[in-house]
Amino acid sequence: MIRILVADDHAVVRHGLRQVFSLDPELSVVAEAKNAWETIDRLREGGVDLLLTDMTMPGLSGIDLIRRAKLEAPRIPVLVLSMHADWQIAARAIKAGANGYLTKDSEPETLIEAIRQVSQGGNFLPPALATQMAFSASSAESDASSAEMSDREYQVFVALVQGHSLVDIAKTLHLSAKTVSTHKFRLMRKLGLTSMSELVRYAVKHGIVE
Which of 44, 93, 105, 137 has the most CB atoms in a 10 Å sphere around its CB? Predict the structure, then answer.
């Protein structure tokens, strides 16, 4: 039996995952968390074999949560289930300690395969994302300046190009609007951009948004 901790701030997602896993006798959701701090608390309680977590929840950012989870429970594998199909976000998650990464539009069978693989000590990336990561990382088109952004700056960057306001981003990340504005200024300086339209074009060019 693989005992799963599901961390996602959307109740409907957690419920849906429970329904998916209920069809497999070897999988069991033994705990849920709706934010980063609850996730850490559940890990401390023990009785979990795998953490299945979203990348964007209230509290710690996805990257910070992964790092904290690995510190609190280094033997518990972390599988990220995210809405972001961006290879750079996946790469940052893996670098932070995640054992696998897949997107929320994946088929249930793929998710179950990922859980089995990661719980057995392996790693998992969907073939398409792995290919994109390998080619983009080695391609001349890969922009080193985006890799130089901090994880928080990159998180703000993705939220901005998805159309979220500074106020909304601040609420989601539990930061002040001024701090988010500072992150925006720094990331745009690193990218050599001066306007939101340029930022969006950059994101489209690099496959961060469509």
Answer: 93
18 burial class (0-12, 13-18, 19+ CB within 10 angstroms)?
A: middle
The first and second tokens of residue 89, run together, are 């976000």
* Residues in a beta bridge with 4: 29, 50
Separation CA 89–CA 64 (nearest Å): 13
Separation CA 139–CA 63 (nearest Å):
25
For 16, the domain range is 2-135
Handedness of CA 5, 11, 12, 13 (dihedral sign): negative
Return the DSSP state at 22: H
CA distance linking residue 194 with residue 147, whole number of Å:
19
**3-state secondary structure (DSSP) of residue 55:** coil
The predicted pLDDT at position 126 comes to: 87
Any domain includes 210:
no
Virtual CA dihedral for 93, 161, 85, 9, nearest 10 degrees? 70
Phi, psi of 20, deg, nearest 5: -60, -50
Res. 39 pLDDT band, cuts 50 70 90: very high
Which is more confident, 116 or 203? 116
How high does pLDDT run on average in the chain?
88
- pTM (2 decimals)? 0.76
**Half-sphere exposure of 71 toward its Cβ, with a 13 Å CA cutoff?**
9
- Collapsed DSSP state (helix, strand, coil) of residue 103: strand
125, 157: one domain: no
